[in-house]
Amino acid sequence: MKRLFALSLILCIAFLLISCGQPDITTTTTGTNTNSGTTPTTDVEQSIPYQSALISGKFSKFDLQDTCTSGKGYIEFQGDSVQCTGTGVRVEGTKVTIFEAGCYTVCGQSNNGQIIVEINKLEKVHLVLQGITLRCEDSAPLWVKSADKVSVTLKEGTVNTFSDGTTFGTSVDAPNATIYAKDSLTFNGTGKLVVLANLHNGIDCSNDLKFISGTYEITAKNNALKGNDAVAILSAHMTISAGKDGIKSDTVGDPQKGVVYIAGGTFIITTMDDGIQAESALDLQGGHFTFYCAGKDINPKGQYHIGDGVTSN
After folding, report:
1. Is the pLDDT of residue 15 over 50?
2. Could you give the CA distance from residue 56 to residue 37 in angstroms, rounded to a whole number?
3. Per-residue model confidence (pLDDT) at position 136
4. I need a labelling partner for 206 at 20 to 30 A (CA). Which of 33, 232, 259, 307 fits?
C-alpha cells in the first residue's frame, strides 16, 4: 500500500494476523507498555471488556448471545405477504412491527418490505436472520425506532441482504441508513450480511454500534458504518465501499463517545473520504487492513493507539 497510516507517530507493525477470537493484547502507548487487565473469555455468560487504555466499555452478555433461548416469534417474508407465528408482531402488508421484547427468527424475501422494532426503551430485541433478502423502496428495511438494545445474529451458512431505494421520508426522525437504529445495535453470528445503501449510510446507530463476528459487505452512498457514540468490533471480516467515510464515530464533548475500537478481523476499505474516522479516540488493537481511500486511511481527531497486532498491505 502506497501509504501506511499517514500519521506523525512511527508505528512498529508486527506481521502476525490476529485470530478471530477474543484479543489477548498488551497495549503500547507513546513508548510505554501497559497491560489492560485479565484476558477476557468468549463464554457468552460473561462480558468481554475492551482491551484499551483510551476507551472504556464492554461486549456484554446480550451482545454475545447468538442463539434464541426462548423464541418469541417466527417471521417469513413471502414476496407480497408476510407469515408470522408467535406473538409480539404486527403486520401491515409487507411491513412488520415488533412491539414486544424477545427473540425473533426472520427469513424470506420481499422487494418492498420492512422490519420495525418499536418497544419499551428499557427492553431488548434479538433478531436471528436465517436467510433474508429485504428491500424497502422509501425507507430503511430494518429500522429500530425504540429499544434499549437490539442484537442481530447472522445464522451460520446464510446470506442476508438489505437494500433501499433512492427516496426516503423528509420528517426529522426519518432514518438515514439502510439499517438504522436510534438505540444500541449489535451484530454477531457466523453468517454473512450484505448492505446496499443507495441513498444514505449503510448501517447507522445513534448510540453504540458493535460487531462480535460475521462477514460483511457494505456498499453505501455516504458512510458505510456509523455509530454516533461508538463503533466497537471484536472480530469481523468486512469489505466496505463508501462515498464518504468507511467506519465513523462523531459524537463530540465526551471522551468516551465518538470512539472507534477494533480488536481483530480483516478489513478491505475503499472510500471517497477517510477509511476510519473517530472524533475522540481511536484504538486499533488488532486486525489486518487494506485501504484504498481518497482521504486519510485513518483520521483520529483526538487520541489514538495502534497496537502490535495490527497489520496492513
Report:
1. no
2. 12
3. 95
4. 307
Domain-wise residue ranges, the chain: 42-312
Please say whether the dihedral angle defined by the alpha carbons of residues 282, 289, 131 and 213, taken in this order, is positive or negative. Answer: negative
CA count, 13 A, side-chain hemisphere, 60: 12
pTM: 0.86
Q: Do the beta carbons of residue 4 and residue 291 sit within 8 Å?
A: no
**pLDDT tens-digit readout, 216-267:** 999 999 999 999 999 999 999 999 999 999 999 999 999 999 999 999 999 9
Other C-beta atoms closer than 10 Å to the C-beta of 189 total: 22
Pairing mode, strands 48-49 and 58-59: antiparallel
Integer-rounded Cα Rg, in Å, for the chain is 19
Query: What are the pLDDT digits (tens) for 77-96?
Result: 999 999 999 999 999 999 99
Locus of grid cell 485470530: 19
> Backbone dihedral region of 202: left (phi > 0), alpha (psi from -120 to 50 degrees) or beta?
alpha
Alpha helix stretches (DSSP H) within 60-218: 61-64
Q: Give yes or no for a contact between 166 and 125, defined as CB atoms under 8 angstroms apart.
A: no
